[in-house]
Amino acid sequence: LIVLEGIDKTYDMGKAHQVKALVDLTMRVSSGDYIAIMGPSGSGKSTLMNIIGCLDTPTSGNYIFEGREISDCSEDELAHIRNIKIGFVFQVYNLLPRSPALANVELPLIYSGVPRDERKQRATETLTAVGMGERVKHKPSELSGGERQRVAIARALINKPSIILADEPTGNLDTKTSGEIMAIFDRLNEEGNTIIVVTHDPEIAEHTKRLVLLRDGQIQSDEEIKSR
Amino acid sequence: LIVLEGIDKTYDMGKAHQVKALVDLTMRVSSGDYIAIMGPSGSGKSTLMNIIGCLDTPTSGNYIFEGREISDCSEDELAHIRNIKIGFVFQVYNLLPRSPALANVELPLIYSGVPRDERKQRATETLTAVGMGERVKHKPSELSGGERQRVAIARALINKPSIILADEPTGNLDTKTSGEIMAIFDRLNEEGNTIIVVTHDPEIAEHTKRLVLLRDGQIQSDEEIKSR
Ligand SMILES: Nc1ncnc2c1ncn2[C@@H]1O[C@H](COP(=O)(O)OP(=O)(O)OP(=O)(O)O)[C@@H](O)[C@H]1O
Ligand SMILES: Nc1ncnc2c1ncn2[C@@H]1O[C@H](COP(=O)(O)OP(=O)(O)OP(=O)(O)O)[C@@H](O)[C@H]1O
Ligand SMILES: [Mg+2]
Ligand SMILES: [Mg+2]
Predict the structure, then answer these.
(1) Model pLDDT, residue A227
(2) Radius of gyration of chain B (CA)
(3) Which of A59, B22, B118, B142 is buried most deeply by CB count within 10 Å?
């Protein structure tokens, strides 16, 4: 489904000072994989997720998505991948600050041309599924940290994407609410969807089937999780 | 040191719909306390921290800080409390987006009138203490989630406040880096400072001496942690 080969991502900070966020990274993802990515703060996890999600481009290396090299894709093809095929839960939520939760979750459905009444109904259902049914009218500034995180999760799932990329989706959630979110991801994976979760929490990683460890921009290990 | 009595915080969402974020909350904090606040997402933890930190005012109830009722304080007195007496680590970091990490951490020292060279030196030392010595020139958008969190922590500590309020300071940090941050907080508490940490992680709470559990805006329990 996804092949990353020899991916480098380097930032130039001027005056010969470079940050190598990813170094010669190679990784394959098959359809239906359920992967946890862990590693120290600053090790390159979000950078990797942004490249997989076609939100950022590598400095060098190949990214082949469903058999197609991403750097050859048109802007329309990339927009389709980002908005329809992939659902992305950002580490920093990225919600529209002046829109209520409901409008934020409806946004991807506007892109895919769903009519207004159906949009409102599906957005309400998805918000309810993540425990946010009582907060649909609140703007992001009127929500707690964990509530904003759940709105971001609902928005990522609403277009029923077959690939879900979640960058620390439970960082601001208590244990019970984390468990509810992971139950949603577990069920989506059982239904055949591909899920990649960045997490710092080993208990979250235990829901997945494969653990990729990053360190200093490189893959330290990439192993099946045997305890399941 | 701090007395909260009968604190209510209610948001009016129009059309007779109210959110009661805090309900009749009473709590005392003594100098040198080391408190963890836990509770479900949306239970009122950040709202409580914002009131303790004088960043928000209760709808009703009393807040007595060092013997003085906060609602009687002048704007200057409040600014002194917020900037000198209290160090606040926000759940959403609140860094200046166009300033590098160093300038962000220097900001409280500008408020307290520290000269330029000393500011730069102290900010560099504090950033190094939280593992960010290599990233002092990066702006927030050029930092990872956990790196931004650590810049926010450095900024909260730089004025050597005697009261530290940290709202989920390790939510985006790996286990090792979390341990380094908690070691800093442990040491500051041993030196006599008062520390209140909101967390979803029981391992973080184990560093503290007292656990306050919130649920639906009310204190469910307030107990010493005996395992230490
Ligand atoms: N725009 C940028 N310019 C320069 N350096 C950057 C930029 N963006 C990220 N970095 C650096 O790249 C490294 C990797 O960042 P990344 O966000 O991928 O880390 P991460 O593994 O997600 O960390 P965390 O667990 O803290 O979220 C970090 O050290 C960061 O400072
Ligand atoms: N400005 C506001 N207007 C309306 N409701 C609000 C506002 N700010 C917060 N709330 C509501 O108040 C409740 C408590 O919010 P708070 O941020 O204190 O929760 P929290 O315990 O910190 O949660 P988390 O663990 O998710 O950060 C939430 O249910 C939230 O929706
Ligand atoms: Mg990250
Ligand atoms: Mg909060």
Answers:
(1) 61
(2) 18
(3) B22
Q: Any idea what the Cα angle at residue A197 is, between residues A194 and A201, rounded to 5°? A: 145
CA distance A57 to B226: 51
- Judged against a pLDDT cut of 90, whether residue B17 lies above it is answered with no
> Helix/strand/coil (H, E, C) string of A148-173?
HHHHHHHHHHCCCCCEEEEECCCCCC
- Compute the distance between CA of residue B170 and CA of residue B4 in angstroms, rounded to an integer: 26
Q: How far apart are CA A122 and CA A132, in angstroms?
A: 13
Cα–Cα distance measured from residue A45 to residue A39, given in angstroms and rounded to the nearest whole number: 7
Q: How far B151 CA lies from chain A's nearest CA (Å)?
A: 13
pLDDT value at position B111?
Answer: 86
Is A228's pLDDT higher than 60?
A: no
Helices vs strands, H then E, count in chain B = 7, 10
Alpha helices in chain B (DSSP H): 45-52, 75-80, 101-111, 116-129, 145-157, 175-190, 202-205
3 state DSSP class of A209: coil
3-state secondary structure of B132: coil
| Pure H helices in chain A | 45-52, 75-80, 101-111, 116-129, 145-157, 175-190, 202-205
| A41 alpha carbon, closest ligand | 1
- The predicted model gives B5-21 an average pLDDT of 91
Put simply, the chain B residues between 169 and 198 with a CB less than 8 A from any chain A CB are: 171-178
Are B172 and A174 an interchain contact pair (Cβ–Cβ within 8 Å)? no
